[in-house]
Amino acid sequence: MDLEVRKAGILDIGFLSKLEEQSFFPFQRGTKQSLKHSVESPFQEVLIVEEKGKINNPVGSLVLFKYPKSLRIYSIAVLPEHQNKGYGNYLLKHAVEFANRNQQQKILLEVSVKNPNLINWYKKMGFATLGTVANYYAPGEDAIKMELKTAVLAPSQKTSNVIVINQPYKWTFTDINATVISVKEYINNPIYQTNTDFRVFNLCSSYKYQSYGYYVSLLASARGQRIIPSTVTIRDFPLLNVINSAASDIEELINDSLKKVKKNTFSLDIYFGQSHTKGYAELAKKLHQLFEAPLFKVDFVKHDKWIISKLQVLTLNKISDQELEFVYVSAQKYFSKKRFSNTKLVNYKYDIAILVNPHEATPPSCPKALQKFKEAANRKGLYVEFITKKDIDKINEFDALFIRETTSVNNYTYEFSRMAYAEGLVVMDDPWSILRCSNKIYQNEILKKHKIGTPPTTIFTKNYFDIKVLNDMNYPLVLKQPDSAFSLGITKVENKEEALVAMNNLFKKSDMIVCQEFMYSEFDWRIGVLDNKPLFACKYYMSKGHWQIYNWKGEEEDYSGESETLSIEEVPELVVQTALKASALIGDGLYGVDLKMINGKVYVVEVNDNPNIDVEVEDLVLKDKLYDMVIQSFYNRIEIAKNVQKIDFTK
Question: What pLDDT score does 149 carry?
Answer without folding.
Answer: 84
